[in-house]
Amino acid sequence: MTAGVPRGEVVTAAPEQLDVLSVARAQVLEQGVGLSEEQVLEVLQLPDERIPDLLELAHAVRMRWCGPEVEVEGIVSLKTGGCPEDCHFCSQSGQFPSPVRSAWLDIPGLVKAARQTAETGATEFCIVAAVRGPDKRLLSQVRDGIKAIREDGNDIQIACSLGMLTQEQVDELVDMGVHRYNHNLETARSHFPNVVTTHSWEERWDTLKMIRAAGMEVCCGGIIGMGETLAQRAEFAVQLAALEPDEVPLNFLIPNPGTPYENYPVVEGPDALRAVGAFRLALPRTILRFAGGRELTFGDLGAKQGMLGGINAIIVGNYLTNLGRPAQDDLDMLDELSMPIKELSKTL
Predict the structure, then answer these.
(1) Strands (E), 40-179
(2) What is the pTM of this model?
């Protein structure tokens, strides 16, 4: 029986007799069972000439288990810079000499950003703050901001990304009507201490479990290209699958000036496409979102390949401290690919 396939669901030939994509076709496409860590690693090691086959299968998996719709999201930074944590990829850390300085967005600015996001056709608006975790001032501003967005007549679904939480803070966000919470694990558990030293992978995991238990949707992903091995990318994919997140934002490292990773190489297109396909095969039922770094890593052609290789969500416009593509460019791309934008849920 193939590793990762539940008892009673048998692939017809032994794994050693089948190419990993043949195994994945039976296991993931037909049965909806994500690949194991060993199988994900095999996918990440496929030669370049197999990438089209991988992307074709990943797209078929996305279409079968998620459907054709694409979820479009915009994000805005409520509190930028000055973060006390030392996440080595992040230009918002106060511990590094990056050019980003601490700043707050006022409530009218937040309402304007939400309105502009909704006008693109996006169904999700994420309020982000560069903090270890929210204090009373920040939570109060989030509450006031959500109230003002609703009073503006905007019914867009609101997500938050405010760092690590206590149970009391989780309950407060639920009370505010926050639909989804983003808290990235960033990388494999085995690699995390090389990326962050001021808090642990387990602390992030605990926040995510509280979010899940409280009934909010869980958004949890990470960044490809932070010095991890292919084996650690595979480890990360199955650790995310174990969390059963509603959404996985897939970022690719932007070597921001002033950070410890400023001289790291940009992830090459073929490696990025292998990662996209592999993560889809590990997470067949999850929203897999193109996020930061895709413009640098893929360019226009690669972005289309990714959208046809398992991606079914996208962040439009700018990121927190980095420029993205104009939102209209992404909307035009989705139209060209005949991919419908997900409508705002009538139940939320």
Answers:
(1) 71-80, 103-104, 124-129, 157-161
(2) 0.88
